[in-house]
Amino acid sequence: MKKIIRSMTAIVIAVVAGVAANAQKPSSDLLTPTNHALVLIDHESQMGFAVKNIPIEQLRHNTAIVAGASSIFKVPTVVTTVAEKSFSGPVFAEVAEFYPPGKFPYIDRTTMNSWEDVNAHKAITGKGKKKIVLAGLWTSVCIVGPALSAKADGYDVYVITDASGDVSTEAHEMAINRMVQQGIKPMTSIQYLLELQRDWARGETYEAVTNLVKKYGGAYGIGIQYAHEMLKH
Q1: Which domains does the chain have, with CATH numbers?
Q2: Angle 144-152/169-181 helices, nearest 10 degrees?
Q3: Can you point out the beta strands (E) in 8-163?
Q4: What is d(CA 178, CA 181) in angstroms, rounded to the nearest whole number?
Q5: Using alpha carbons only, how large is the chain's radius of gyration in Å?
Q6: Is residue 9 over pLDDT 80?
Q7: In the chain, which residue ranges form alpha helices assigned H by DSSP?
Q8: Are 149 and 117 spatial neighbours (Cβ–Cβ below 8 Å)?
Q9: Percent of the chain, pLDDT > 90?
Q10: Contact, 72 vs 209, CB < 8 A?
Q11: CA separation for the pair 36, 38 (Å, rounded)
């Protein structure tokens, strides 16, 4: 009888240990600071003028969350522009805040599809990451091109939909639908940030993440500000 009890106890312990072990292993589909490269494409003045699917101030704040997240977590990042000096103008201030143009090299192109530009392609693939996250303007042109191209080359591609914009809601949505049909994964700016943080016990990034959200996170940011002030934790 004692042997049976010991055996049953051992089985229970093994099962519990197995469940605990599995609980500690997140999906490989989730992003981490080290398993992907971020590409911010053409967040520029001229490209922003025509965006209609999302209010421009919201687009700028979402872009700031993405750029800030990548900076906080030291994600390998590429910033591309198109005809920056001759037509499209400077990048959003919210990108320059985290990636200053004088200190961080932007890759300027003439191609609409950054994957077809030799320097941009080399910079993106040179990060050595099989997961690529994209955000930029316009969704139907500047994002669809590299997204489909990277996917065809075997990369696991994600698109941050609310840090991308287009000339109409239909243009944006059809672009997202087209990419999703090819297995490209949509996500949002806050989702991107929190997927990288993952655990509030990660104290080394906690303050920077919550400060970023307080500045650019809308109602969520106000909630964090309130909690920090009123609860004093």
Answers
A1: 36-195 (3.40.50.850), 198-231 (no CATH)
A2: 0
A3: 36-41, 77-82, 107-109, 131-136, 156-160
A4: 5
A5: 21
A6: no
A7: 2-23, 45-49, 56-72, 93-96, 118-125, 144-152, 169-181, 189-197, 203-216, 218-231
A8: no
A9: 82
A10: yes
A11: 7
- Please give the distance of CA 122 from its chain centroid, rounded to a whole number: 20
Q: Which residues contact 74 (CB under 8 A, 6 or more apart)?
A: 33
Tens of pLDDT, residues 46-97: 999 999 999 999 999 999 999 999 999 999 999 999 977 877 779 999 999 9
Dihedral (CA of 32, 36, 37, 42) sign = negative
- Point out the least confidently predicted range of 3-17, 79-93, 111-125, 130-144: 3-17
**Strand pairing class (185-187; 156-160):** parallel
Which stretches of 57-190 are assigned E, i.e. beta strand? 77-82, 107-109, 131-136, 156-160, 185-187
Nearest one of 11, 39, 53, 35 to 176, comparing CA atoms: 53
Place of tokens 């990277």: 150
Q: State the pLDDT at residue 119.
A: 98
- Given the structure tokens 């080290």, which residue do they identify? 34
Cβ–Cβ < 8 Å for 186, 159: yes
Comparing C-alpha atoms, which of 74, 189, 88 is closest to residue 142? 88
Beta bridge partners of 202: none
Rounded alpha-carbon distances, angstroms, from residue 96 to 33, 68, 143, 179: 20, 10, 20, 28
What backbone torsions phi and psi does residue 197 show, to the nearest 5 degrees? -70, -50
User: What's the rounded mean pLDDT across residues 101-118?
Assistant: 95
Percent of the chain with pLDDT over 70: 90
Which two three-digit tokens encode residue 9?
């106890």
